[in-house]
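Form 7-S
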Amino acid sequence: MRSRNWSNLEISVVSALTDPSGRSLKAKDLAGVLEISGKEYPAFKKVLTDMEKRGIVHKVRGHRYAVPKSIELVRGVIEVAPKGHGFVRSNEGQADVYVPRYRLGSAMNGDTVCVRIQGRPQGRNPEGAVVRVLKRGRNKIVGVYQTSRGAGSVTPLDNRLCLNVRINGGGGPSLREGQVVVVRILSYEEGGRAKPSGVIEEILGDSEDPAVQILAVAHAHGLAQVFADDVMEEARVAAKEGTSNPGDARVDRTSLLTFTIDPSDAKDHDDALSIERLDVDRVEVGIHIADVSHFVDVGSAVDTEAYARGTSVYLVDRTIPMLPTILANDVCSLKTGVPRFALSVFVTLDAEGQVHGHRYEHTIIKCRVALSYEEAQEVIDGQASIDPEVDGALNTLLEYARAIRALRLLRGSLDLDLPEAEVIIGPNGEPLDIRRRQRLEAHRVIEDFMILANEVVAEDFERKGIVGLYRVHEPPAPEKMEKLSETLTQFGFMKSRGRLSALEMQETVCAVAGKPEEALVNILVLRSLRRASYSTQNVGHFGLGSVGYTHFTSPIRRYPDLVVHRMVSQCLIKGRESPYQDSDSLRELAGHCSVREQAAVEAERESVAFMKTGFMGRHLGEKYSGQITGVAPFGLFVTLDDLFIEGLIPVSTIMDDYYRFEEREYSLVGERGHRRFRLGDKLSVQVARVDIDRRQTEFVLLEDALL
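Output:
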């Protein structure tokens, strides 16, 4: 077997089992087809066993092997809902498979599983059952310790982990009920049923402490809090040596008027802008991105750690960086008044926003000023002045940003303005207030030019046949588009039903901008969309209306951007081969970065949700107005108008009638009085209950609640 290529052998096995007849074969018969000798047979059996574990092949009756297609198996990661059912998201782009709670077996949220399709209901997702857990998504959970009849258990803080974990030891004499702990799982099942057990590895503290809850979020999502000593030492050396050695062919652009625009509390500055007028209509915009690749070598300790983290994570009270701070906040950051290394793309634009050429350079730049978004907005509004040159440059950038944005909207780019909560934190980590985070024109200017740079790089990869790393966003599933069209028509936001195009979707969003129904339409559109991810296959970006898109502009905080920088540097500037020649490894990298990004997004949301719940806990009994943003058989989800906090009104607390769920109309309807609660309705509610550990708020409906 040493002379055989193991990957090729797996391909040969799959090919033999995907014969047009859809046959299944015993191991010996399969070995005969593949001309496996007697000496090679034991090793061949090990390959088959490994393939079976990974879900590539499966045993059917008579000890025969078959491939998933012939017995309708789907392999993917399962996402379990708080109610206990799950959806398996396939790695091969197939429709998500619905798995009822009673068919999960021992699978837990985040596990890679193999499911067998057991039905295909018309107009709904295929339904299946877990036949094997191929890979566990976690070996630790975070939860609250409790005891009952002398036995200890831990209730996971993640409400998608629906079972308590039995505790077999650990914790020591300081362990007490109500503490948040980290549990290492030793066993996931008992007798084929999910029954996890484990030992306590760490006590984080009391569940009432806000800092402990945020720390629990970080642990639950595998977010490393500190860097290893070897990573820190390598970063210090790289910072010193990299700064003193600019490398070959770096162009001095320190004379350019360059500036950054970032949040007022930003510690790192990934990007800066410059603009020079070429003639009456045309300008050259410089989009300067911190040259992190100059300081972080492929395969180094810093690079390995950055890959593992995948992204910086912005929790409500802290940042967990992808890179050590000596790099992220110091030598890589485009600080004001000091020379900094950048990877710059210069784009020539006309007054209509059309691109007339671009070029890349390794540069040295020196930013004249660092503006906050609020300061930049004051200049745009004519309420403040930095200096005549900066004011003029910023307003010219605004003019061309509006032009490229208008072109993007014409091709169907979605501009969803969803309210984002900003939590004001007190000295002890407690939430003092929650308000809407402002989205200014200054934010849009930066977004427009970053999108432009990302599109330019992606188009170059595609045009030159480079195997790139793309940021992809597939169109919504047809059934989702049809459902959205039906709902928008039903609510009067569209004139006639039919499959929506991206442009029609954007036109609908624009039509309700600034109106009371804007938030509802944006939410409905958002729920119809797929999740964006990273891929080596350029399938475009639906949400932006882009033929090709990548992530190039934030290498301090996103690992894919660092990878793309290396490709731009080697392939587009130096004309060399890509440092990522192995397409399989690059695909694996894309998948890993997508997973780490999702973990970061969930952690960030969870940290905000904890603060929102804590804030509501201090306002029990108080009354608020809100809007129905979700309807389910078990109740109404209401989002409060000014606080952007969502809570549940359980249907069991609406006592005046028996309410049934009308799925097609997104409503609960009373059987006797025919009172109707519909998506988008305005209500008056009272805060009834909070569960801080589960990040859940419950409301009760006030009399004469419909506003």
